[in-house]
Amino acid sequence: MTHAGEIEELLAHYHGGKKEGAASRFLRPALFAFSNRDLARFFEKRGLPLVADSQGWLFPKTGSAQDALRILIEEAEKIGLPILLGTKVEKIRRGSSGFALYSQSSKALGRAWAVVLATGGPARPDLGGSADGYALAESLGHRIVPLRPALAPVIVKPQDFSPFVSCAGLALRGTTVTLFRARKVRIKVGDVLFTHRGLSGPAILDLSRDVEPGDLLRVALAPELGAFPEAERRLRMGTASLGRKNLVNFLCELGLPRSLSQALLVSRGVSPAKKAAELTRDERRALAESLARDFGHPFPVAAVGGWEEAMVTRGGVDLDEVDPKTMGSRLVPGLFFAGEILDIDGESGGYNLQAAFSTGYLAGVSAARFALHRGQARAHSLA
Length: 383
What we know:
The chain has 383 residues and is α+β, with helices and mostly antiparallel strands.
């Protein structure tokens, strides 16, 4: 649902906008207007406490997302908010008397002084993800930063990943992942999960927004062995004391799971049946590179998971065209934005949901004030 950290800590985990740190600066007013503490209090008052795991990620105590959804729907019903199911808004027109909304059959849905676009993005279409909101924003004059999947798994070139297919389901805890594109681009420390096609887990998901086909990911397979010189020394010392063991058992002694030991040796062209004492200098250095915290095993990227696998959207409504203090459009008075439709994407750990709740709160309050002011002004002019 969110993260238990301080606001400043949360703000360091968002991306988007034209410049480094733009998303964090944009979100600051919203996160202070409705913080993670406010969110936890909201649900706790309604009988659903949030509990933190060891990483500070906050989940419903019941473990059920449906309980959170139920509370939100009940709150809408309490205030008489109509929810129109199966009703797609195809057009929004703005005139002197506010906005007119039209459905897919060009049927008028009504008028409003203010409109909040909180339509999410195209990630996970099976859960309702859609790009509809961007077309509506564009029709009202807003620029859309190009969209692409984020928080998505990475597919590794099959010829390079085939030895690791047997590792599917294996997780590396707190390892180092480095993204290269001609040079080092980004480094992330976190958990990595092997899949049947490549890599996933929080560290990979967080990097995926910047990954392109043809990039190289280096994953430290045993970061606890230290940087390359120390990892190479540990291997050298180990071959002296455990030289009679075959290399699979030797690597297991160093802490690697058996399936990963086997895969690593095959990928490096070293016979798993070979004795540790028979390891050549070049083979030892190659293994040390794969294990070391500051090098890592190379995984060439074939592709990034598509919309059906992505958790969020990178890109969206240009932040320069939205007032961060109100979430209101700088181009269209009375138009407001909330959540994933904006050019903001957070890392894994509850950051995206918190941004959605915070921008939703600020957009809702701002839209209500705008509508009230316009309604009063209209009534006064008619009087």
